[in-house]
Specification:
The chain is globular, with a radius of gyration of 17 Å. The protein starts with 6 loop residues before the first helix and ends with a helix. Helix 1 (7-30) runs antiparallel to helix 2 (46-62), helix 4 packs across helix 7 and helix 5 packs parallel to helix 6. The chain has two domains: 7-141, Fructose-1,6-Bisphosphatase, Chain A, domain 1 (2-Layer Sandwich); 154-259, D-Maltodextrin-Binding Protein, domain 2 (3-Layer(aba) Sandwich), CATH 3.40.190. By secondary structure, it is an alpha+beta fold. It has helices at 7-30, 46-62, 91-96, 168-178, 189-197, 211-223, 251-259; strands at residues 34-36, 43-45, 67-70, 81-89, 102-109, 112-120, 125-130, 134-137, 140-141, 154-157, 182-184, 203-207, 227-229, 242-246. Strands 3-4-5-6-7-8-9 form a seven-stranded mixed sheet, with helices on both faces. It has a five-stranded mixed sheet with strand order 11-10-12-14-13, with helices on both faces. A two-stranded antiparallel sheet has the order 1-2. Bound molecules: D-MYO-inositol-1-phosphate (IPD) and calcium ion (2 copies). Residues 86, 89-91, 158-160, 187-189, 206, 209, 213 line the site of D-MYO-inositol-1-phosphate.
Length: 261
């Protein structure tokens, strides 16, 4: 793995994850100010903003020519190489002390995600992947499960903050529940994807996620042997409205349930 051309970037992203973890822990202990973004439940805390600033400074001082896209500060296009970062995925969980949140960091090169790191900053677990180099949890290789039955598989989904205005995923959620499927709504999409990669979930889908939510987790699932598509089974691309990520074995069956009339 050390011979992988993007290994130095993996090392830097792991350092950035540690920086974010320190900032998340610091503000959790000390208390933090918070505000709202698109609506009253779309929160942003001091931890989101400071983690992004610290990650950006670290990565751009190490790799000065790179671009940077972060949830809080946005970013500019046009760079062959860019970092895609969600400094705190699961902000609502974090703000309530519900321990399911983390940081998501990816390196995109010429439009292709090459490195992905998701750190659960509450538990301290680190999921990472290098394209062509496999997926790992705290240094041990991870694989998706081989469960082929959809019924009895454990699934997760999530909802955008404006779900009341854009309730499309309520339809898919209801279809899954009516079939008796086991569905969770953990509240941190990057970790949901990492859990598919690690074999803790068989599948995950969501509507309207942003590149920073999925860039790292998408690579994790593929490198762990899983499949990531849109709702129709076409290959996923960043910015797509729909993402369906599974162990591969249940993929077609899940797509059929989500699409049924
Ligand atoms: C949110 C989480 C959540 C998902 C939302 C995202 P944030 O990200 O990933 O699980 O359902 O759509 O916006 O705001 O906590 O970074
Ligand atoms: Ca997010
Ligand atoms: Ca976030």
């Amino acid at each position: 793995m050390k011979g992988h051309p993007f290994y130095p970037y993996l090392e830097a992203l792991l350092q950035a994850a540690t920086l974010a973890q320190g900032i998340h822990a610091y503000y959790l202990a000390k208390g933090f100010t918070q505000g709202t973004k698109s609506g009253p439940t779309d929160l942003v805390t001091q931890a989101d903003r400071e983690a992004e600033e610290a990650i950006k400074n670290l990565l751009l001082s190490r790799f000065p020519g790179a671009g940077f896209l972060g949830e809080e500060g946005g970013g500019e296009g046009g760079k062959a190489l860019r970092f895609i970062v969600d400094p705190l995925d699961g902000t609502v969980n974090y703000a309530h002390g519900f321990p399911f949140y983390g940081v998501s960091l990816a390196l995109e090169v010429e439009g292709v995600i090459q490195v992905g790191v998701v750190r659960d900053t509450a538990r301290g677990e680190t999921f990472y992947a290098l394209r062509g180099g496999g997926a790992y949890l705290d240094g041990r290789p991870i694989r998706v499960t081989e469960r082929a039955e959809l019924l009895g598989s454990l699934l997760a989904t999530g909802f955008p903050y404006d779900v009341a205005k854009d309730p499309e995923n309520l339809t898919y959620f209801a279809r899954a529940l009516r079939r008796g499927l086991l569905v969770r709504r953990p509240g941190a999409a990057a970790l949901d994807l990492a859990y598919v990669a690690a074999g803790r979930l068989e599948g995950f889908w969501e509507v309207k996620l942003n590149p920073w939510d999925v860039a790292a987790g998408w690579l994790l699932v593929e490198e762990a042997g899983g499949r990531v598509t849109d709702l129709e089974g076409r290959p996923y691309h960043l910015g797509h409205r729909y993402i369906v990520a599974t162990n591969g074995c249940i993929h077609e069956a899940l797509l059929r349930v989500l699409q049924e009339d």
